[in-house]
Amino acid sequence: MREQVELYESSGGTKAPPYVIRAARGYRDPHGNKTGAIRKTPLMRVKDRNNYVLIGSVGGAPNDPVCAQSARQSRCGNRDETVVSPMRVREVKDEGERSRLWRLL
């Protein structure tokens, strides 16, 4: 993952798959320890109008991945090619909206 982020950032997003890079501070490791470090995660770029759609999954397991938990808890930023912007995370709970977004993916 680190190599993918480095390639993306060094090329301005031109030499990597269609990602956005999500950066968050105050990340909690798998043991629940708050590290305060900035973690960068490459995520597939899926846009819905002016919004990005993020999917958190652990291969279909009932628990969320650590990055999804961290997204709900921390301030984070989003990098799409060379544009960096703040990001607010909102969990979609409405089943109709979830179905619409899933079809978009």
Task: Please describe what this structure looks like.
With 105 residues, the protein is an alpha+beta fold. The chain has a single domain, classed as Pnp Oxidase, Chain A (Roll), CATH 2.30.110. It is built from 3 helices and 6 strands. It has helices at residues 2-10, 66-73, 95-104; strands at residues 19-25, 38-44, 47-48, 51-52, 76-80, 83-87. A 4-stranded antiparallel beta sheet has the order 2-1-5-6, sandwiched between helices. The protein has a two-stranded antiparallel ribbon with strand order 3-4. A hairpin with a 2-residue loop joins β5 (76-80) and β6. It is globular and about 40 Å long. The model has no long low-confidence stretch (mean pLDDT 78).
Supply the key terms.
4-stranded antiparallel β-sheet; 3 helices; Pnp Oxidase, Chain A; 26% helix; two-stranded antiparallel sheet; alpha+beta; 6 strands; 105 residues
| Structural domain tally | 1
Structural class: alpha+beta
| CATH secondary-structure class | Mainly Beta
Outline type: globular
Rg for CA atoms: 14 Å
In short:
The chain is α+β, with helices and mostly antiparallel strands.
Which helices and strands appear, and what pairs or packs with what?
Elements: H1 2-10, E1 19-25, E2 38-44, E3 47-48, E4 51-52, H2 66-73, E5 76-80, E6 83-87, H3 95-104
Antiparallel strand pairs: 1-2, 1-5, 3-4, 5-6
